[in-house]
């Protein structure tokens, strides 16, 4: 067996061959580079979404009753990692604000009908966290875990830190929920800057469509937590 190199291990040749711009290479170099920048931002987002999908699925599995304290601790590890990755994805959107709009306008026609709204991995994350159309599958197992430990969400919120590991699961969920919301708001702001009130390449109204889809996951947990503070 030969020596494994960094480039072999990470499949660098394949990885770096995947940023194929659609604008003809004869176009202005700055425009070609702007499209490469756009592709890299989307591809790296998809790579991180691959990790998030797997981590959230594992977190949900760890919460499935019967779940002991060790399982709950493990779910927290997965959840906290997702929370941190979401912060990174938010940062990546801010980086994209450095895409000059005049260059974007030049390569945008080459995107055809391709759009982030078709991202299967983002949809998987939204299903796990819940949106307007579907309740969160992750929250459902969280409720089951709380019940398995002889509590209700109300008890949990009332006890706060006294509920120990379950309290920390709840906090980790809320952190992810807020990270998701931050991403949606940043994406909305970026889109508004880049396309104004024009339609999206995916055929939606664009900014209006996105604004309606900015939701905060785990509304029940938020509500019950708030009520637990009332005297
Ligand atoms: C210049 C940058 C970007 C622009 C102008 C933009 C524009 C848009 C628009 C207009 C939509 C509405 C759907 C449609 O196309 O009709 C959309 C949806 C979406 N885009 Fe982007 N986008 C950008 C960057 C990104 C990045 C980096 C990602 C990361 C993968 C992303 C992921 C998504 C997702 C997941 C949706 C659906 C959102 C939802 O369901 O609420 N976008 N984008």
From TrEMBL:
Signal peptide: none
Gene3D superfamilies membership: 1.20.58.480
The protein, known as: Tryptophan 2,3-dioxygenase
Highest taxon above the source species: Bacteria
Entries under SUPFAM superfamilies matching the protein: Indolic compounds 2,3-dioxygenase-like
């Amino acid at each position: 067996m030969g020596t494994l190199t960094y480039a072999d291990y990470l499949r660098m040749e394949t990885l770096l061959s995947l940023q194929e711009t659609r604008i003809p290479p004869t176009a202005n170099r700055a425009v070609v580079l702007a499209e490469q920048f756009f592709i890299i931002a989307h591809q790296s987002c998809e790579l991180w979404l691959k990790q998030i999908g797997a981590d959230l699925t594992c977190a949900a599995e760890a919460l499935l009753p019967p779940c002991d304290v060790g399982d709950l601790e493990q779910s927290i590890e997965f959840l906290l990692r997702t929370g941190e990755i979401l912060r990174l994805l938010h940062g990546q959107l801010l980086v994209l604000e450095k895409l000059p709009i005049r260059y974007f306008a030049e390569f945008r026609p080459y995107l055809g009908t391709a759009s982030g709204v078709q991202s299967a991995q983002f949809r998987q994350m939204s299903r796990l966290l819940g949106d307007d159309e579907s309740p969160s599958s992750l929250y459902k197992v969280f409720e089951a875990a709380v019940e398995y430990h002889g509590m209700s969400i109300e008890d949990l919120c009332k006890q706060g830190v006294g509920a120990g590991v379950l309290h920390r699961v709840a906090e980790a969920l809320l952190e992810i929920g807020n990270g998701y919301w931050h991403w949606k708001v940043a994406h909305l702001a970026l889109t508004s800057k880049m396309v104004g009130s024009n339609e999206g390449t995916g055929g939606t109204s664009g900014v209006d469509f996105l604004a309606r889809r900015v939701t905060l996951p785990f509304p029940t947990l938020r509500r019950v937590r708030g009520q637990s503070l009332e005297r």
